[in-house]
Amino acid sequence: MATPLVIRDRNVMRKLILTNRTMGRRIGFVPTMGSLHAGHTSLVDQAVAECDDVVTSIFVNPSQFGPQEDFEQYPRDFDADFNLLAQHDVRWIFAPDVHEMYPPGDSTRIEISGPAEPYEGTLRPGHFSGVATIVFRLLQAAPSHAVYFGAKDWQQVLVVRKMVHDLKLDVEVVTCPTVRDTDGLALSSRNTYLSKSERKRAPTIYAALEQAEQNWCQGLAIDTIEQKLKDMLSAKEIQIDYADIVHTESLKKISEVSPNTPAIFLIACRVGSTRLIDNILLPSQALSSC
Q1: Which residues participate in catalysis according to the annotation?
Q2: Domains in the chain and their CATH numbers?
């Protein structure tokens, strides 16, 4: 198993990938903010299975954090990340510093409407502009055939797809399943913020989503499904930012069950002071698909 090559310069990274592309090699790219866990390595493993070479970026992007968010506290451990990626056949690790991706005097940002407007877009102004901008710049530095994201960040996936479509970027956006701990909690770098007692309560999030899926399959009214989920979380003192059943692509709220409407239950909540997001896709055929 080869040791990954660490690249800090985006021009060097770009030249390496373009050279390998001219040799007919398929390149997969997994962008991350580090603090890697099994969710990240599942993306890497899928990329390795589908591509000849894989590049993983480690970059904590300041432009997607709001003024009161956790940029300075966000967990960072490059050595641990490097050792983990070395076990998963990553060829290159692209790890630029902030000035490499945002040079002094830089003032250009990408703004996206549509899927970037509701939910996280409303609660975290500027967040998706930061996401779109850094993903675009990372794709310039690592011009790959496919880029891999996890389904846990569903709205982010839609935003990246929209940007790729609208800017005619020559890359396939691959969405991979959410990876969960044995108790159902979606893996997230922010799970490390949870205290022991908070960690015990956090699996209620997915348990409530699974119950919501059952209620959906039983044909309960959407308002009832949403309220039952909120009641489950409130009983565990989990504060809800939003918990809505929406169209999987438009993110518009769904008011009633329709056999042919693709739906997803989106949730953002706080366990103690830690903000977590999750979701569950709901069967499109309601009763007949459950």
Answers
A1: 40
A2: 5-176 (3.40.50.620), 189-283 (3.30.1300.10)
